[in-house]
Specification:
By secondary structure, this protein is α/β, with parallel strands linked by helices. It has helices spanning 14-27, 69-86, 96-109, 130-143, 155-163, 209-222, 238-244, 259-262, 280-286, 317-325, 329-346, 349-366; strands at residues 2-9, 32-39, 56-64, 90-94, 115-119, 149-152, 171-174, 195-200, 227-232, 250-254, 268-271, 292-295, 310-313. The chain folds into 2 domains: 2-180 and 348-366, Rossmann fold; 195-346, Rossmann fold. It has 12 helices and 13 strands. The strands form 2 sheets. Strands 3-2-1-4-5-6-7 form a 7-stranded parallel beta sheet. A 6-stranded parallel beta sheet has the order 10-9-8-11-12-13, sandwiched between helices. The two termini are 17 Å apart.
């Protein structure tokens, strides 16, 4: 089976890591994968530059996140050429712009080719103004005629989209994210007596790094000198956040390849996003038997069970700080072990790839 994946860009972040893990695991199942992708923004890093992807890579010179009608039209025709060249048995699109152009391009060549779109979250809450959200909703409703099946990474994402009548007549599947699991992941030893917190992500509004800084302000009030935070990543808000964190025990590490291996020891991961499909970083932390404290948004609660393998926060940075401050070493260790056990059971790359293969086989067999 040959599968062509189309994604807007492979910037360092969830969708790129997901596609790396998925195509690797599906190669082991006998599937040939190709990835058509575009260019990163100037304030992003390209995941492909630092990782070896075991799939055929096809860079589309005019594909990028920003709206540009001239480039978008050229991208549509470029994707048609890519599809004709690869001759895939199935096309799987990812992210918004690639989802639009890739689905229409595939069906414009052959209406019978199965097309899957994976929703890695949704743009309903926290990304755009209400007017843009309405436009997004209308576009996604129209795109159902170019789509055979829809995949969401959480049940919450599927439910939210279906409430908006997006893809109401499509074949829907919830396929959870998965990562390669290792029982031999070790962190360097803790070099001090402070509880070490880690934050990993893009410094953008939706990831809300300012919330993490506010948590540290609260922690310094209630337990001075007990905590320190490392923040990994980059983005348009990095300079602003760095200035706001002066005189706080926070270090900014920039983009770090394999951040959970190369950022030093940590006790607890912070996930502060305003909206999140399924934070891949939670799974990465669990692979090191470390729990996550997160805002209770999107599909986060489909991995974190409050008080079992992490903490869920419904309100303010003060609430998050108070809950973090109440944690003992024994509780952290128990939650970290529980996170790992949940990861191994339901969130591995092998489970994810097997579920995608079942869907692909089903669609190809149904192909007229």
């Amino acid at each position: 089976m040959k599968v062509l994946h189309v994604i807007t860009r492979m910037n360092t972040g969830g969708p790129a890591v997901f596609l790396d893990h998925l195509t690797n695991a599906m190669n082991d199942l006998g599937t040939q994968s190709a990835i058509a992708y575009g260019y990163c923004e100037s304030n992003e890093t390209d995941y492909i530059e630092n990782h070896e992807i075991n799939s055929k890579l096809i860079k589309v010179k005019t594909l990028h996140r920003s709206l540009n009608p001239f480039d978008d039209i050229r991208t549509f025709f470029a994707l048609r050429q890519v599809i004709k060249g690869v001759k895939p048995d199935l096309v799987n699109t990812h992210t918004s712009k690639a989802g639009v152009l890739g689905r229409i391009a595939a069906k414009s060549i052959n209406r019978k080719i199965p097309v899957v779109h994976t929703y890695h979250g949704h743009l309903i809450y926290g990304y755009f103004a209400k007017s843009k959200t309405i436009i997004f909703t209308l576009i996604e409703r129209l795109l159902a005629q170019f789509t055979n099946a829809a995949v969401s990474i959480t049940k919450e994402t599927q439910t939210s989209l279906q409430k908006l009548k997006i893809g109401k007549n499509l074949e829907w599947s919830v396929i959870r994210l998965g990562i390669p699991v290792s029982s031999n992941n070790f962190l360097p030893s803790n070099d001090g007596h402070k509880l070490k917190l880690l934050w990993v992500g893009r410094f953008t509004n939706i990831k809300d790094p300012a919330y993490a800084v506010k948590v540290m302000v609260e922690l310094e009030k209630i337990s001075p000198n007990r905590f320190e935070l490392s923040m990994v990543g980059g983005g348009e808000l990095l300079e602003q956040i760095t200035k706001s964190a002066q005189n706080l025990p926070i270090q900014f590490l920039g983009w770090v390849d394999k951040p959970f291996e190369n950022s030093g020891y940590f006790d607890l991961l912070l996930l502060t996003s305003k909206n999140e499909g399924m934070g891949l970083v939670m799974l990465e932390a669990a692979n090191y038997k470390k729990p996550t404290v997160a805002r209770n948004v999107g599909g986060v609660g489909e991995f974190i069970k409050d008080g079992v393998n992490g903490l869920l926060i419904d309100t303010s940075p003060a609430e998050m700080a108070n809950k973090i401050n109440s944690l003992t070493s024994e509780k952290l260790n128990k939650m970290g072990e529980a996170s790992y056990q949940i990861l191994v059971k339901d969130f591995t790359d092998k489970v994810m790839a097997s579920n995608y293969l079942k869907l692909y086989n089903f669609l190809i067999k149904l192909k007229p």
